[in-house]
Amino acid sequence: MKEYTLCRILCSDIEFAGLLRNCQWLEICISERTGEITSYYYQFVPPKETIILDTENNELSGVIGPYDEGSELRLRCESIGGYPPPTVTWWRGSTLLDDTFETLPDGVVRNDLVISTLQRSDLLMVLTCNANNNNATVAVATSVKINLNLKPIEARITSLRRTLSAGRRAELECTSAGSRPAARISWWIGTTQLTNSSESFSPDRNRTTSILNLWPTSDHNNKYLSCRAENPMLPGQPVEDGWTLNVSFEEIQLASLINQLQNTNPRSNTETLQWAAEADVSLARNEIVTDDEIIRTATAQDDDDDDVTPVNPVKISHSEAMAALNTSLQWAEEQNFEAHEIMLLRALRDRAFE
Asked: Which residue range or ranges hold the Ig-like domain (predicted)?
């Protein structure tokens, strides 16, 4: 005669099995001699599901965010169902991040994850919540991937840091990398933002390039020029590069050229610039003007000035003009004038020859 009988009973078929939460079935050993239950075994029931929530109890899945670099991240994982209550843990790959959890009265097991400061290295990291209550079944897991807004790593003016000439266009380039989304670049002289620039982006949107077309003036000399890169999603956190401008403004060359053209008593540099400013504001701004404009400005008469007594113009022959211009050209070359000024004198000499 058998001493024990092994019975498998559905938990729903016996009254006391209701005390075993989430029980599916029991295995009971009954003594055939005494009729007593000597032992029983009940099945582990795995958790039904795990869900990840944000601080406002919104359920999250897939790629979440973007969150800001440097900000705090709070996530909650809840495991529903299962017996005995599962262990709920947070993982990053194979690295355990948090194994502290609590079981609520309704049987839900909760684990709150806090990452105090999100780093650049956390971009697209996968966070996984595991719930497991035995070693015989596979853990129930849910994962999310973290997207981030990243600050630019650098801003750098790549153009040669050289002396600029007043009135001559200078093309300057600035690049920035590391921002997500792509950085926007702005140019500044002191506290004044410049607007004559254009932007382009690399195919992966990781690098921004800005080209500035600058027309320096004498007022820009010793002013600080800067290039600022900023993530539009992270305002107030720019990075910048810059230098103090060295602008050469060619007063001596302008005075000498006008004195040659006027064929009058020499003017000082100050008198020449004052005269130029009154005669044509474009010269005072150090803008590029053509040969004809310079000659027209230098020889213009103020028709509105009734107090000026007309003076008979001095007749100058072609040979006298050529001799004067040859002398001016030789002197300009000895003084190492700019190439465009020497070309202007040569053009005037050639015109006199005609």
From this structure: 47-145, 152-246
Distance of CA 337 to the CA centre of its chain: 42
Number of domains composing the chain: 4
Residue at 306 is within a domain: no
Q: For residue 306, how many other CB atoms are within 10 A of its CB?
A: 6
User: Which residue's entry shows tokens 């990075």?
Assistant: 239
* Contact residues for 103 (Cβ-Cβ < 8 A; gap 6+): 85, 109, 110
Q: Are residues 257 and 224 in the same domain?
A: no
**E runs forming strands in 215-269:** 224-230, 239-244, 247-248
> pLDDT tens digits, residue range 62-111?
999 999 999 999 999 999 988 778 999 999 999 999 999 999 999 899 99
Domain boundary residue, one of 99, 122, 149? 149
The two three-digit tokens of residue 305, written as one number = 């000035």
Q: Are residues 197 and 160 in the same domain?
A: yes
- Element holding 170 (H helix, E strand): strand 170-177
- 255 and 328 assigned to the same domain: yes
Which tokens sit at 119? 């780093």
Through-space distance between the first and last CA atoms of the chain, rounded to whole angstroms: 139
Is position 282 within any domain?
no
CB 141 within 8 Å of CB 89? no
Give the global pTM: 0.61
Whether 288 is in a domain gets the answer no
The pair of three-digit structure tokens given for residue 79, joined into one six-digit string? 């495991």
| Strands of the 73-80 sheet, one edge to the other | 59-60, 49-53, 73-80, 109-115, 102-103
134/199 same-domain check: no
Strand 192-194 relative to strand 170-177, pairing:
unpaired
What is the CATH number for 188?
2.60.40.10
- 267, part of any domain: no
The parent domain of residue 92 ranges over 49-149
Contact 38, 11 (CB under 8 A): no
Cβ 83 vs Cβ 23: under 8 Å = yes
Q: What is the largest CA-CA distance in the chain?
A: 150
